[in-house]
Amino acid sequence: MTDTLHVATYNIHKGFSHFNRRVVVHELRERLHALGADVIFLQEVVGAHDRHAERFDDWPVKPQYEFLADAVWIDFAYGKNAVYDGGHHGNAILSRFPIVSWENEDVSTHRFERRGLLHCEIRVPGWARPLHCVCVHLGLFARGRTRQLRALERRIREMVPEDAPLVIAGDFNDWQGRASRILVDSLELREVFELTRGRAARSFPSALPLFRLDRIYVRGFHVKHAHVHHGPPWSRISDHAALSATMIRL
Protein backbone atom coordinates (compact mmCIF):
# COMPACT_ATOMS: atom_id res chain seq x y z
CA MET A 1 0.00 0.00 0.00
CA THR A 2 1.25 3.50 -0.83
CA ASP A 3 -0.17 6.98 -0.37
CA THR A 4 2.41 8.55 -2.70
CA LEU A 5 1.71 8.96 -6.42
CA HIS A 6 4.21 10.13 -9.04
CA VAL A 7 2.68 11.34 -12.32
CA ALA A 8 4.02 12.88 -15.52
CA THR A 9 2.59 14.40 -18.70
CA TYR A 10 4.27 14.78 -22.08
CA ASN A 11 3.31 15.77 -25.61
CA ILE A 12 5.61 13.37 -27.47
CA HIS A 13 5.29 14.96 -30.94
CA LYS A 14 4.39 11.59 -32.51
CA GLY A 15 7.81 10.15 -31.68
CA PHE A 16 9.74 12.56 -33.93
CA SER A 17 12.35 15.23 -33.27
CA HIS A 18 11.78 18.87 -34.27
CA PHE A 19 10.67 19.30 -37.88
CA ASN A 20 10.18 15.50 -38.06
CA ARG A 21 13.84 14.99 -38.93
CA ARG A 22 14.37 11.68 -37.13
CA VAL A 23 12.57 9.02 -35.11
CA VAL A 24 13.25 9.51 -31.40
CA VAL A 25 10.76 7.10 -29.89
CA HIS A 26 13.54 4.79 -28.64
CA GLU A 27 15.27 7.60 -26.73
CA LEU A 28 11.85 8.76 -25.59
CA ARG A 29 11.17 5.39 -24.01
CA GLU A 30 14.45 5.55 -22.09
CA ARG A 31 13.67 9.03 -20.79
CA LEU A 32 10.15 8.11 -19.73
CA HIS A 33 11.48 5.07 -17.88
CA ALA A 34 13.97 7.29 -16.05
CA LEU A 35 11.14 9.49 -14.74
CA GLY A 36 9.89 6.61 -12.60
CA ALA A 37 6.28 7.79 -12.82
CA ASP A 38 3.39 5.61 -11.69
CA VAL A 39 1.02 7.11 -14.27
CA ILE A 40 2.02 8.94 -17.46
CA PHE A 41 -0.32 11.07 -19.57
CA LEU A 42 0.81 11.24 -23.21
CA GLN A 43 -0.42 13.35 -26.13
CA GLU A 44 0.22 13.02 -29.89
CA VAL A 45 0.75 9.26 -29.63
CA VAL A 46 0.74 7.32 -32.90
CA GLY A 47 -1.37 4.18 -32.83
CA ALA A 48 -0.52 3.20 -36.42
CA HIS A 49 1.14 4.76 -39.47
CA ASP A 50 1.79 2.62 -42.53
CA ARG A 51 4.03 5.13 -44.34
CA HIS A 52 6.29 5.67 -41.34
CA ALA A 53 6.58 1.92 -40.85
CA GLU A 54 7.73 1.55 -44.46
CA ARG A 55 10.03 4.58 -44.47
CA PHE A 56 11.91 4.20 -41.17
CA ASP A 57 13.83 1.01 -40.33
CA ASP A 58 13.67 1.76 -36.59
CA TRP A 59 9.92 2.40 -36.51
CA PRO A 60 8.43 0.18 -33.74
CA VAL A 61 6.33 -2.79 -34.80
CA LYS A 62 3.99 -2.21 -31.87
CA PRO A 63 1.77 0.88 -31.44
CA GLN A 64 3.70 3.66 -29.71
CA TYR A 65 1.73 3.44 -26.47
CA GLU A 66 2.48 -0.28 -26.17
CA PHE A 67 6.11 0.18 -27.18
CA LEU A 68 6.58 2.94 -24.58
CA ALA A 69 4.82 1.00 -21.82
CA ASP A 70 7.30 -1.86 -22.30
CA ALA A 71 7.63 -3.84 -19.04
CA VAL A 72 7.40 -0.75 -16.80
CA TRP A 73 3.73 0.16 -17.01
CA ILE A 74 1.59 -2.95 -16.78
CA ASP A 75 -1.51 -1.37 -18.26
CA PHE A 76 -2.36 1.30 -20.80
CA ALA A 77 -5.30 2.94 -22.56
CA TYR A 78 -5.31 4.69 -25.92
CA GLY A 79 -7.84 7.20 -27.19
CA LYS A 80 -7.86 7.34 -31.00
CA ASN A 81 -8.66 10.91 -32.07
CA ALA A 82 -7.23 11.76 -35.50
CA VAL A 83 -7.78 9.10 -38.19
CA TYR A 84 -6.25 9.36 -41.66
CA ASP A 85 -5.25 7.09 -44.55
CA GLY A 86 -3.02 4.37 -43.14
CA GLY A 87 -2.91 5.57 -39.57
CA HIS A 88 -4.20 7.39 -36.50
CA HIS A 89 -2.99 9.17 -33.36
CA GLY A 90 -4.40 10.39 -30.07
CA ASN A 91 -3.83 10.37 -26.30
CA ALA A 92 -2.60 7.56 -24.06
CA ILE A 93 -2.33 6.80 -20.35
CA LEU A 94 0.31 4.35 -19.11
CA SER A 95 -0.11 2.94 -15.58
CA ARG A 96 1.84 0.78 -13.14
CA PHE A 97 -1.54 -0.18 -11.66
CA PRO A 98 -4.53 -1.91 -13.30
CA ILE A 99 -6.85 0.24 -15.39
CA VAL A 100 -10.31 -1.06 -14.51
CA SER A 101 -12.24 1.02 -17.04
CA TRP A 102 -11.65 3.70 -19.65
CA GLU A 103 -13.50 5.81 -22.19
CA ASN A 104 -12.45 8.30 -24.86
CA GLU A 105 -14.97 11.13 -25.29
CA ASP A 106 -14.90 12.94 -28.63
CA VAL A 107 -14.78 16.69 -27.96
CA SER A 108 -13.79 17.80 -31.47
CA THR A 109 -15.22 21.18 -32.41
CA HIS A 110 -14.52 20.92 -36.15
CA ARG A 111 -13.47 18.19 -38.55
CA PHE A 112 -9.94 19.53 -39.15
CA GLU A 113 -8.84 19.19 -35.50
CA ARG A 114 -9.87 15.96 -33.79
CA ARG A 115 -9.67 15.98 -29.98
CA GLY A 116 -10.71 13.63 -27.17
CA LEU A 117 -10.84 13.27 -23.38
CA LEU A 118 -9.27 9.95 -22.35
CA HIS A 119 -10.75 9.06 -18.94
CA CYS A 120 -9.44 6.07 -16.95
CA GLU A 121 -10.27 4.57 -13.57
CA ILE A 122 -7.20 2.99 -12.00
CA ARG A 123 -7.14 0.58 -9.07
CA VAL A 124 -4.29 1.53 -6.74
CA PRO A 125 -3.59 -1.14 -4.08
CA GLY A 126 -4.93 -0.14 -0.66
CA TRP A 127 -6.97 2.84 -1.89
CA ALA A 128 -10.67 2.78 -1.02
CA ARG A 129 -11.61 4.71 -4.18
CA PRO A 130 -10.25 4.21 -7.71
CA LEU A 131 -7.97 6.91 -9.05
CA HIS A 132 -9.60 8.90 -11.85
CA CYS A 133 -7.27 10.16 -14.59
CA VAL A 134 -8.14 12.29 -17.61
CA CYS A 135 -5.62 12.93 -20.38
CA VAL A 136 -6.39 15.99 -22.51
CA HIS A 137 -5.06 17.73 -25.60
CA LEU A 138 -7.20 20.78 -26.25
CA GLY A 139 -7.63 22.64 -29.52
CA LEU A 140 -5.67 25.55 -30.91
CA PHE A 141 -8.61 27.99 -31.05
CA ALA A 142 -10.01 29.74 -27.98
CA ARG A 143 -13.70 29.15 -28.75
CA GLY A 144 -13.13 25.43 -29.26
CA ARG A 145 -11.04 25.15 -26.08
CA THR A 146 -13.81 26.76 -24.05
CA ARG A 147 -16.32 24.20 -25.35
CA GLN A 148 -13.88 21.38 -24.62
CA LEU A 149 -13.28 22.62 -21.09
CA ARG A 150 -17.04 22.74 -20.49
CA ALA A 151 -17.29 19.15 -21.74
CA LEU A 152 -14.50 18.21 -19.33
CA GLU A 153 -16.33 19.95 -16.48
CA ARG A 154 -19.55 18.06 -17.26
CA ARG A 155 -17.71 14.73 -17.36
CA ILE A 156 -16.07 15.32 -13.98
CA ARG A 157 -19.35 16.39 -12.34
CA GLU A 158 -21.24 13.41 -13.75
CA MET A 159 -18.68 10.62 -13.49
CA VAL A 160 -16.17 11.38 -10.73
CA PRO A 161 -17.30 11.22 -7.06
CA GLU A 162 -16.26 14.30 -5.10
CA ASP A 163 -14.20 12.20 -2.66
CA ALA A 164 -12.37 10.23 -5.39
CA PRO A 165 -8.72 11.14 -6.13
CA LEU A 166 -8.48 12.88 -9.50
CA VAL A 167 -5.68 13.91 -11.87
CA ILE A 168 -6.26 15.83 -15.12
CA ALA A 169 -3.14 16.39 -17.20
CA GLY A 170 -2.01 17.15 -20.71
CA ASP A 171 -1.47 19.82 -23.32
CA PHE A 172 -4.12 22.49 -22.74
CA ASN A 173 -2.88 24.94 -25.43
CA ASP A 174 -4.10 27.46 -22.87
CA TRP A 175 -2.40 30.73 -23.66
CA GLN A 176 -4.74 32.85 -21.52
CA GLY A 177 -5.18 30.74 -18.38
CA ARG A 178 -8.87 30.05 -18.92
CA ALA A 179 -8.54 26.39 -17.91
CA SER A 180 -7.76 27.34 -14.33
CA ARG A 181 -10.83 29.54 -14.09
CA ILE A 182 -13.01 26.54 -14.94
CA LEU A 183 -11.12 23.69 -13.28
CA VAL A 184 -10.00 25.54 -10.16
CA ASP A 185 -13.01 27.77 -9.56
CA SER A 186 -15.75 25.35 -10.59
CA LEU A 187 -14.31 21.93 -9.75
CA GLU A 188 -11.95 22.83 -6.88
CA LEU A 189 -8.91 21.28 -8.53
CA ARG A 190 -5.41 22.67 -8.05
CA GLU A 191 -2.62 22.96 -10.59
CA VAL A 192 0.57 21.45 -9.19
CA PHE A 193 2.93 24.25 -10.29
CA GLU A 194 0.55 26.95 -9.14
CA LEU A 195 0.62 25.27 -5.74
CA THR A 196 4.39 24.82 -5.55
CA ARG A 197 5.67 27.81 -7.55
CA GLY A 198 2.78 30.24 -7.81
CA ARG A 199 2.22 29.91 -11.57
CA ALA A 200 1.73 27.21 -14.18
CA ALA A 201 5.01 25.95 -15.65
CA ARG A 202 6.57 27.23 -18.85
CA SER A 203 6.66 24.17 -21.09
CA PHE A 204 6.95 25.29 -24.73
CA PRO A 205 9.23 25.28 -26.64
CA SER A 206 11.28 22.67 -24.82
CA ALA A 207 14.70 24.18 -25.65
CA LEU A 208 13.83 27.42 -23.85
CA PRO A 209 10.26 27.30 -22.50
CA LEU A 210 8.28 30.53 -22.74
CA PHE A 211 4.62 29.49 -22.89
CA ARG A 212 2.54 27.78 -20.19
CA LEU A 213 0.70 25.20 -22.31
CA ASP A 214 0.95 21.95 -20.31
CA ARG A 215 -0.67 21.42 -16.90
CA ILE A 216 -1.30 18.88 -14.14
CA TYR A 217 -4.50 19.50 -12.12
CA VAL A 218 -5.25 17.41 -9.03
CA ARG A 219 -7.93 16.93 -6.40
CA GLY A 220 -7.52 14.91 -3.21
CA PHE A 221 -3.72 15.21 -3.03
CA HIS A 222 -1.02 17.16 -1.25
CA VAL A 223 1.67 18.10 -3.79
CA LYS A 224 5.21 17.51 -2.50
CA HIS A 225 7.07 18.84 -5.53
CA ALA A 226 6.77 19.40 -9.28
CA HIS A 227 9.42 19.54 -11.97
CA VAL A 228 9.79 20.75 -15.57
CA HIS A 229 12.02 18.53 -17.74
CA HIS A 230 13.41 20.79 -20.47
CA GLY A 231 16.65 21.46 -22.29
CA PRO A 232 18.95 18.62 -23.42
CA PRO A 233 18.23 15.75 -23.72
CA TRP A 234 14.47 16.47 -23.55
CA SER A 235 14.61 19.18 -26.19
CA ARG A 236 15.94 16.61 -28.69
CA ILE A 237 12.81 14.49 -28.24
CA SER A 238 9.85 16.86 -28.45
CA ASP A 239 8.98 20.53 -28.84
CA HIS A 240 7.21 20.36 -25.45
CA ALA A 241 8.86 19.91 -22.06
CA ALA A 242 7.74 17.03 -19.87
CA LEU A 243 6.12 17.83 -16.51
CA SER A 244 6.13 15.59 -13.43
CA ALA A 245 4.81 15.81 -9.88
CA THR A 246 4.93 13.77 -6.70
CA MET A 247 1.83 13.86 -4.49
CA ILE A 248 0.49 12.32 -1.31
CA ARG A 249 -3.12 11.21 -1.16
CA LEU A 250 -5.20 13.06 1.41
UniProtKB/TrEMBL annotation:
GO terms for biological process: GPI anchor biosynthetic process. Pfam families: Exo_endo_phos. GO terms for cellular component: membrane. Residues 8-240 form the Endonuclease/exonuclease/phosphatase domain. GO terms for molecular function: catalytic activity. It comes from the Bacteria. This is EEP domain-containing protein. It comes from Pelomicrobium methylotrophicum. The lineage of its organism: Bacteria, Pseudomonadati, Pseudomonadota, Hydrogenophilia, Hydrogenophilia incertae sedis.
